[in-house]
Amino acid sequence: MERRSFIKAGLVLAGTGTAASVFKPAGAAENNNVLQGGKLWRAKETALPVPADPTKRLYLNEREYNLVTAIFDRLIPADELSPAASEAGCVVFIDNQLAGDYGKASWRYNQGPFEKGTASQGTQTPYTPAEIYRKGLLELDNHCLSLFGKSFTALSHDAQDSYLEKMESGEFKYPTFSSEVLFGQFLSNVMEGFLADPIYGGNRNMVGWKMIGFPGARYDYRDYAPLKGQKLNIEPISIIELLKA
User: What CA–CA distance (Å, rounded) separates 136 from 111?
Assistant: First the structure.
């Protein structure tokens, strides 16, 4: 089945205003499992996100962009399973996120007071993700300059790996952030970029989804549910396909 056809295998709705309506996805198995009766459900009109443009820099400056690229590529390096994080678009992803609501922390209360919380309460900080990147990257690189006389980007891969391992263990103390908190921010974001829908700039060519076998933004799986014990090899679908439908 064509991927676009499968996406379009959504709502096939009977006329509006009827007491009973019939709903059946196009492409669903022909087993007469048709839902009848009840009220007609209509999806809320929601604007689709605008695909991230990899040619545009929205938040990170050149130095920051190169630093994030170097860090992300050591957290997810190229190997036999996938390309490196930057090749998969993870830096484009976080650059776009930092320029938007995520970067501004618009989803959370941030008026204080700010106290050290428990591990289950997450990071308690007055800084937004955008501010964490701006201040954290500067403090990290200044720390590398004081230790090695060179930027993190100029270190060998082995030296970068060693530095990140010490960051993760909390060995370094930066002026504003503890190194394990900053490391956790980078690790969370690179994983998000590697596995998010490609419309947000990361997971380019759906490499992350293909690696783990995730089928993406498909409508439903009723045609596949009866296939027991079989390797399905379902081609993943991005929200981008909805824009083409």
Answer: 21
Average pLDDT, the chain: 83
Kindly give the residue spans of alpha helices, DSSP state H, lying in 116-200. 129-148, 157-168, 179-195
- Reported as a single tens digit per residue, the pLDDT across 44-77 is 777 778 899 999 999 999 999 999 999 999 999 9
d(CA 77, CA 69): 11
Query: What's the confidence (pLDDT) of residue 63?
Result: 97
Phi-psi bin for 170: left (phi > 0), alpha (psi -120 to 50), beta? left
The set of residues, in sequence order, having a beta carbon less than 8 Å from that of 170 and lying 6+ positions away, is 178, 179, 180
Which H or E run includes 35?
A: strand 35-36
CA pair distance 28, 69, nearest whole angstrom: 44
Report the distance separating Cα 215 and Cα 241, nearest Å. Answer: 13
- Give the CA count within 13 Å in the CB-facing half-sphere of 120: 0
Q: What is the amino acid identity at position 207? A: V
- The DSSP call for residue 216 is B
Residue stretches of the chain with pLDDT short of 70 = 1-38, 245
